[in-house]
Amino acid sequence: MPKEFSRSQRVKEQIRRELAELIRLEVKDPRVGFITLTDVEITPDYAHAKVFFTSMKGEEGLSEILTGLRRASGFLRRELGRRIRIHTIPELHFHYDASVERGSRLSRLIDEVVRDDSARHTDDPED
């Protein structure tokens, strides 16, 4: 039987979905464009939420993106309050998620090693 999701998991997923939609459709700050929300961590009392994001630009312009997100956080929090029915709307804390970029870099390194290894084996006459 599949495991049920806890209430906090459902709430954090709903927060992530709603914030992604709000940022995409409602936030007019150009600094905040081209980001993807990857995860939300929420405290047990719902007072604080860490919102993790990645950017199409990587770490380039990260300080501007964070500034734009922090400026929009009051608006985002107010709109969350209108869309989600929970007792406390969490204070939003935005954090850059470098895991996607690290994963991509590791994948490129693995591809290079495999390519070099296969080239070495085709040049080796002993095989």
Keyword list:
3 strands, 3 helices, three-stranded mixed beta sheet, alpha+beta, 52% helix
Topology:
Elements: H1 7-25, E1 35-42, E2 48-55, H2 62-83, E3 91-96, H3 99-123
Parallel strand pairs: 2-3
Antiparallel strand pairs: 1-2
Average pLDDT over all residues: 87
Could you tell me how far the N terminus lies from the C terminus, measured between alpha carbons in angstroms? 51 Å
| Lateral arrangement of strands in the main beta sheet | 1-2-3
Parts with pLDDT < 50 across at least 5 consecutive residues: none
Give a count of the beta strands, DSSP E runs of length 2 or more.
3
Largest sheet: 3 strands, mixed
Quick rundown:
With 127 residues, this protein is α+β, with helices and mostly antiparallel strands. The protein is built from three helices and three strands, in the order H-E-E-H-E-H.
Any overview of this molecule?
With 127 residues, the chain is of the alpha+beta class. It is built from 3 helices and 3 strands, in the order αββαβα. Strands 1-2-3 form a 3-stranded mixed sheet, covered by helices on one side. Helix 1 crosses helix 2. The radius of gyration is 20 Å and the shape is elongated.
